[in-house]
Amino acid sequence: MSGQTTRPAATSSTSVVQSTLVAPPSSSNSPSPSSSLMTAPSSATGSPLPEPFDTSLGSNFTSTNCPKFFNSFLNNATFTSCLPFSLLLQNSNSFFMAAHSVTRTTQILDATCNVVFPTCNSLMGSLAQQIRDDDNCGQDYENENPLVLQAYKGLLSYGPMYQASCLKDSSGNYCFANAITNTSSPTDSYVYYLPLGMPLPGGARPTCSSCLQNTMTIFNEAASNLSQPVSPFYTGAAEQIDLGCGPSFVNTTVAPIIGSASSGASSHFTTPSLGCLVAVLVAALLHLF
User: Which residues of 75-86 are buried (b: 16+ CB within 10 A; e: fewer)?
Assistant: First the structure.
Protein backbone atom coordinates (compact mmCIF):
# COMPACT_ATOMS: atom_id res chain seq x y z
CA MET A 1 0.00 0.00 0.00
CA SER A 2 1.65 3.21 -1.17
CA GLY A 3 1.30 5.98 1.40
CA GLN A 4 -1.77 6.64 3.48
CA THR A 5 -5.05 8.30 2.88
CA THR A 6 -7.07 10.27 5.34
CA ARG A 7 -10.68 9.18 5.60
CA PRO A 8 -13.09 11.97 6.48
CA ALA A 9 -14.98 11.83 9.71
CA ALA A 10 -18.69 12.44 9.51
CA THR A 11 -19.31 15.92 10.87
CA SER A 12 -21.90 15.94 13.63
CA SER A 13 -24.00 18.63 15.19
CA THR A 14 -26.11 18.76 18.31
CA SER A 15 -28.63 20.91 16.47
CA VAL A 16 -29.73 19.11 13.34
CA VAL A 17 -31.36 21.34 10.76
CA GLN A 18 -34.52 19.91 9.26
CA SER A 19 -35.25 19.88 5.55
CA THR A 20 -36.95 23.03 4.37
CA LEU A 21 -38.39 21.40 1.28
CA VAL A 22 -42.09 22.11 1.03
CA ALA A 23 -43.85 18.77 0.91
CA PRO A 24 -46.54 18.02 -1.68
CA PRO A 25 -50.03 18.81 -0.37
CA SER A 26 -51.06 15.14 -0.36
CA SER A 27 -48.00 13.99 1.59
CA SER A 28 -48.31 13.85 5.38
CA ASN A 29 -44.94 12.32 6.31
CA SER A 30 -42.52 14.53 4.38
CA PRO A 31 -40.13 16.85 6.21
CA SER A 32 -41.67 20.08 7.41
CA PRO A 33 -40.28 23.53 6.63
CA SER A 34 -37.81 24.86 9.16
CA SER A 35 -37.10 28.44 10.07
CA SER A 36 -33.44 27.61 10.76
CA LEU A 37 -31.33 27.23 7.65
CA MET A 38 -27.77 26.20 7.02
CA THR A 39 -25.63 28.81 5.33
CA ALA A 40 -24.79 28.12 1.69
CA PRO A 41 -21.07 27.37 1.34
CA SER A 42 -18.64 29.52 -0.56
CA SER A 43 -15.09 28.92 -1.69
CA ALA A 44 -12.17 30.45 0.14
CA THR A 45 -11.50 32.73 -2.82
CA GLY A 46 -15.09 33.94 -2.99
CA SER A 47 -15.55 32.40 -6.43
CA PRO A 48 -19.05 31.08 -7.12
CA LEU A 49 -19.40 27.41 -6.33
CA PRO A 50 -20.85 25.03 -8.93
CA GLU A 51 -24.43 23.86 -8.67
CA PRO A 52 -26.08 20.64 -9.81
CA PHE A 53 -28.42 20.81 -12.80
CA ASP A 54 -27.11 24.25 -13.71
CA THR A 55 -28.29 24.00 -17.31
CA SER A 56 -31.89 23.89 -18.44
CA LEU A 57 -33.93 20.98 -17.12
CA GLY A 58 -35.65 20.81 -20.50
CA SER A 59 -39.22 19.72 -21.05
CA ASN A 60 -38.86 15.97 -21.39
CA PHE A 61 -41.13 15.16 -18.47
CA THR A 62 -44.30 13.10 -18.34
CA SER A 63 -45.59 14.84 -15.23
CA THR A 64 -45.77 18.61 -14.88
CA ASN A 65 -45.09 18.12 -11.16
CA CYS A 66 -41.64 16.67 -11.82
CA PRO A 67 -39.83 19.85 -12.95
CA LYS A 68 -41.59 21.68 -10.12
CA PHE A 69 -40.14 19.17 -7.68
CA PHE A 70 -36.67 19.67 -9.17
CA ASN A 71 -36.94 23.43 -8.85
CA SER A 72 -38.23 23.04 -5.30
CA PHE A 73 -35.23 21.13 -3.98
CA LEU A 74 -32.68 22.96 -6.14
CA ASN A 75 -33.82 26.22 -4.55
CA ASN A 76 -33.95 24.75 -1.07
CA ALA A 77 -31.43 26.52 1.20
CA THR A 78 -30.44 23.38 3.10
CA PHE A 79 -29.92 21.42 -0.11
CA THR A 80 -27.83 24.24 -1.57
CA SER A 81 -25.65 24.40 1.53
CA CYS A 82 -24.90 20.67 1.26
CA LEU A 83 -23.36 21.11 -2.22
CA PRO A 84 -23.68 17.36 -2.96
CA PHE A 85 -20.66 15.99 -4.83
CA SER A 86 -22.78 13.04 -5.94
CA LEU A 87 -24.92 15.39 -8.05
CA LEU A 88 -22.12 17.70 -9.15
CA LEU A 89 -20.02 14.97 -10.74
CA GLN A 90 -22.49 14.02 -13.44
CA ASN A 91 -24.96 16.90 -13.53
CA SER A 92 -23.05 20.16 -13.25
CA ASN A 93 -21.56 21.97 -16.21
CA SER A 94 -19.83 24.46 -13.91
CA PHE A 95 -18.21 21.60 -11.97
CA PHE A 96 -17.10 20.00 -15.24
CA MET A 97 -15.35 23.22 -16.23
CA ALA A 98 -13.79 23.71 -12.79
CA ALA A 99 -12.40 20.16 -12.77
CA HIS A 100 -9.75 21.22 -15.28
CA SER A 101 -7.91 22.87 -12.38
CA VAL A 102 -6.60 21.01 -9.34
CA THR A 103 -6.69 24.27 -7.35
CA ARG A 104 -10.31 25.00 -8.24
CA THR A 105 -11.32 21.39 -7.67
CA THR A 106 -9.68 21.48 -4.25
CA GLN A 107 -11.57 24.67 -3.35
CA ILE A 108 -14.86 23.01 -4.33
CA LEU A 109 -14.07 19.85 -2.36
CA ASP A 110 -13.22 21.97 0.67
CA ALA A 111 -16.78 23.30 0.47
CA THR A 112 -18.52 19.98 -0.25
CA CYS A 113 -16.71 18.32 2.66
CA ASN A 114 -17.23 21.16 5.14
CA VAL A 115 -20.90 20.45 5.75
CA VAL A 116 -23.00 18.93 8.51
CA PHE A 117 -22.99 15.42 7.08
CA PRO A 118 -25.85 13.88 9.13
CA THR A 119 -28.15 16.71 8.09
CA CYS A 120 -27.19 16.52 4.43
CA ASN A 121 -27.29 12.72 4.32
CA SER A 122 -30.76 12.70 5.87
CA LEU A 123 -32.02 15.31 3.42
CA MET A 124 -30.65 13.48 0.37
CA GLY A 125 -32.22 10.23 1.55
CA SER A 126 -35.56 11.98 2.03
CA LEU A 127 -35.39 13.55 -1.44
CA ALA A 128 -34.49 10.17 -2.96
CA GLN A 129 -37.73 8.81 -1.54
CA GLN A 130 -39.78 11.83 -2.52
CA ILE A 131 -38.60 11.91 -6.13
CA ARG A 132 -40.20 8.49 -6.71
CA ASP A 133 -43.58 9.62 -5.36
CA ASP A 134 -46.36 9.79 -7.93
CA ASP A 135 -47.02 13.35 -6.79
CA ASN A 136 -43.49 14.28 -7.87
CA CYS A 137 -41.52 12.31 -10.48
CA GLY A 138 -42.89 8.80 -9.97
CA GLN A 139 -44.16 8.36 -13.52
CA ASP A 140 -40.97 9.76 -15.02
CA TYR A 141 -38.95 7.44 -12.80
CA GLU A 142 -40.90 4.43 -14.04
CA ASN A 143 -40.43 5.66 -17.62
CA GLU A 144 -36.67 5.79 -16.94
CA ASN A 145 -36.36 9.48 -17.66
CA PRO A 146 -32.54 9.92 -17.72
CA LEU A 147 -32.54 13.15 -15.72
CA VAL A 148 -34.78 11.68 -13.02
CA LEU A 149 -32.73 8.49 -12.76
CA GLN A 150 -29.50 10.48 -12.52
CA ALA A 151 -30.98 12.66 -9.79
CA TYR A 152 -32.29 9.64 -7.90
CA LYS A 153 -28.96 7.82 -8.02
CA GLY A 154 -27.08 10.96 -7.06
CA LEU A 155 -29.33 11.53 -4.05
CA LEU A 156 -29.19 7.89 -3.01
CA SER A 157 -25.40 7.69 -3.25
CA TYR A 158 -24.67 10.93 -1.40
CA GLY A 159 -23.15 9.16 1.62
CA PRO A 160 -20.48 7.02 -0.08
CA MET A 161 -19.74 9.76 -2.60
CA TYR A 162 -19.19 12.25 0.22
CA GLN A 163 -16.81 9.88 1.99
CA ALA A 164 -14.87 9.08 -1.19
CA SER A 165 -14.60 12.66 -2.43
CA CYS A 166 -13.26 13.84 0.92
CA LEU A 167 -10.45 11.27 1.11
CA LYS A 168 -6.95 12.76 1.15
CA ASP A 169 -3.56 11.23 0.43
CA SER A 170 -0.57 11.31 2.79
CA SER A 171 0.36 14.76 1.45
CA GLY A 172 -3.03 16.21 2.32
CA ASN A 173 -4.27 16.39 -1.26
CA TYR A 174 -7.75 15.23 -2.18
CA CYS A 175 -7.65 11.85 -3.91
CA PHE A 176 -10.36 12.91 -6.34
CA ALA A 177 -8.53 16.13 -7.28
CA ASN A 178 -5.45 14.04 -8.03
CA ALA A 179 -7.47 11.58 -10.09
CA ILE A 180 -9.48 14.03 -12.19
CA THR A 181 -6.38 16.05 -13.13
CA ASN A 182 -3.96 13.16 -13.69
CA THR A 183 -3.22 13.48 -17.41
CA SER A 184 -0.87 10.50 -17.36
CA SER A 185 -3.66 8.18 -16.18
CA PRO A 186 -7.02 9.63 -17.28
CA THR A 187 -8.96 6.56 -16.12
CA ASP A 188 -8.17 7.29 -12.45
CA SER A 189 -11.41 9.26 -12.13
CA TYR A 190 -13.62 6.52 -13.57
CA VAL A 191 -14.04 4.68 -10.26
CA TYR A 192 -15.89 7.69 -8.83
CA TYR A 193 -18.77 7.02 -11.21
CA LEU A 194 -19.41 3.55 -9.76
CA PRO A 195 -21.74 4.82 -6.98
CA LEU A 196 -23.84 6.50 -9.67
CA GLY A 197 -24.57 3.13 -11.23
CA MET A 198 -21.96 3.19 -13.99
CA PRO A 199 -19.67 0.21 -14.64
CA LEU A 200 -15.91 0.64 -14.87
CA PRO A 201 -15.06 0.66 -18.61
CA GLY A 202 -13.27 -2.50 -19.69
CA GLY A 203 -10.06 -0.74 -20.69
CA ALA A 204 -9.76 1.33 -17.53
CA ARG A 205 -6.58 0.78 -15.53
CA PRO A 206 -6.59 3.27 -12.65
CA THR A 207 -3.34 3.96 -10.80
CA CYS A 208 -2.66 1.40 -8.08
CA SER A 209 -2.49 3.63 -5.02
CA SER A 210 -3.70 3.89 -1.44
CA CYS A 211 -6.26 6.41 -2.70
CA LEU A 212 -7.72 3.77 -4.99
CA GLN A 213 -7.70 1.13 -2.26
CA ASN A 214 -9.47 3.32 0.28
CA THR A 215 -11.97 4.63 -2.25
CA MET A 216 -12.89 1.08 -3.20
CA THR A 217 -13.19 0.14 0.48
CA ILE A 218 -15.86 2.82 0.84
CA PHE A 219 -17.64 1.57 -2.27
CA ASN A 220 -17.41 -2.04 -1.03
CA GLU A 221 -19.24 -1.03 2.13
CA ALA A 222 -21.85 0.82 0.09
CA ALA A 223 -22.30 -2.13 -2.29
CA SER A 224 -23.39 -4.33 0.62
CA ASN A 225 -26.60 -2.31 0.60
CA LEU A 226 -28.38 -3.69 -2.47
CA SER A 227 -30.42 -0.52 -2.83
CA GLN A 228 -27.25 1.44 -3.63
CA PRO A 229 -26.58 1.97 -7.38
CA VAL A 230 -22.98 0.76 -6.95
CA SER A 231 -24.11 -2.69 -5.84
CA PRO A 232 -24.41 -4.43 -9.27
CA PHE A 233 -21.11 -3.01 -10.51
CA TYR A 234 -18.70 -3.16 -7.59
CA THR A 235 -17.46 -6.74 -7.94
CA GLY A 236 -16.73 -6.45 -11.66
CA ALA A 237 -14.80 -3.23 -11.08
CA ALA A 238 -12.87 -4.71 -8.15
CA GLU A 239 -11.88 -7.77 -10.16
CA GLN A 240 -10.74 -5.56 -13.01
CA ILE A 241 -8.63 -3.46 -10.65
CA ASP A 242 -7.05 -6.57 -9.18
CA LEU A 243 -6.04 -7.66 -12.69
CA GLY A 244 -3.95 -4.53 -13.01
CA CYS A 245 -2.81 -4.08 -9.41
CA GLY A 246 -2.43 -7.65 -8.24
CA PRO A 247 -4.58 -10.18 -6.39
CA SER A 248 -6.36 -8.88 -3.31
CA PHE A 249 -5.33 -5.27 -3.98
CA VAL A 250 -8.98 -4.46 -3.33
CA ASN A 251 -11.70 -6.61 -1.84
CA THR A 252 -13.76 -8.28 -4.57
CA THR A 253 -16.28 -9.84 -2.17
CA VAL A 254 -19.47 -8.08 -1.16
CA ALA A 255 -21.53 -9.29 1.77
CA PRO A 256 -25.09 -8.09 1.10
CA ILE A 257 -27.06 -6.73 4.02
CA ILE A 258 -30.14 -8.90 4.40
CA GLY A 259 -33.27 -7.00 3.47
CA SER A 260 -31.34 -4.06 2.02
CA ALA A 261 -32.81 -4.25 -1.50
CA SER A 262 -35.28 -1.47 -2.20
CA SER A 263 -38.37 -2.75 -3.97
CA GLY A 264 -38.62 -1.43 -7.51
CA ALA A 265 -35.34 0.44 -7.35
CA SER A 266 -32.65 -2.13 -8.14
CA SER A 267 -34.11 -2.87 -11.58
CA HIS A 268 -33.02 0.60 -12.69
CA PHE A 269 -29.39 -0.10 -11.72
CA THR A 270 -28.64 -3.13 -13.87
CA THR A 271 -28.18 -1.50 -17.26
CA PRO A 272 -26.65 1.98 -17.45
CA SER A 273 -28.13 4.28 -20.04
CA LEU A 274 -26.17 5.53 -23.01
CA GLY A 275 -26.11 8.94 -21.36
CA CYS A 276 -24.43 7.48 -18.29
CA LEU A 277 -21.72 5.81 -20.34
CA VAL A 278 -21.18 9.00 -22.30
CA ALA A 279 -20.68 10.86 -19.02
CA VAL A 280 -17.77 8.57 -18.17
CA LEU A 281 -16.23 9.15 -21.58
CA VAL A 282 -16.71 12.89 -21.25
CA ALA A 283 -14.70 12.79 -18.05
CA ALA A 284 -11.75 11.54 -20.07
CA LEU A 285 -11.96 14.59 -22.30
CA LEU A 286 -11.00 16.74 -19.32
CA HIS A 287 -7.46 15.43 -19.75
CA LEU A 288 -7.27 16.41 -23.39
CA PHE A 289 -7.62 20.15 -22.88
Answer: ebbbbbbbbbbb
- Cβ-count burial of 244 within 10 angstroms (0-12 exposed, 13-18 middle, 19+ buried)? middle
Question: For residue 16, is pLDDT > 90?
Answer: no
Distance CA 82, CA 38 (A): 8
pTM: 0.78
| CA torsion through residues 251, 88, 73, 119, sign | positive
Query: Per residue in 60-77, pLDDT tens?
Result: 899 999 999 999 999 999
Look at residues 114, 108, 120, 197 and name the one whose alpha carbon lies nearest to residue 151.
197
**Would you state the pLDDT for residue 49?**
94
The residues near 286 (Cβ < 8 Å, ≥ 6 apart) are 96, 99, 100, 180, 181, 186, 189
Distances from the Cα of 49 to the Cαs of 91, 94, 97, 111, in angstroms? 14, 8, 11, 8
SS3 121: helix
pLDDT at 7: 53
Largest CA distance in the chain: 55
**Mean pLDDT across the chain:** 81
How far is 237 from 201, CA to CA, in rounded Å? 8
Buried b (16+ CB within 10 A) or exposed e, 204-243: bbbbbbbbbbbbbbbbbbbbbbbbbbbbbbbeebbebbbe
Q: What percent of the chain has pLDDT over 90?
A: 68
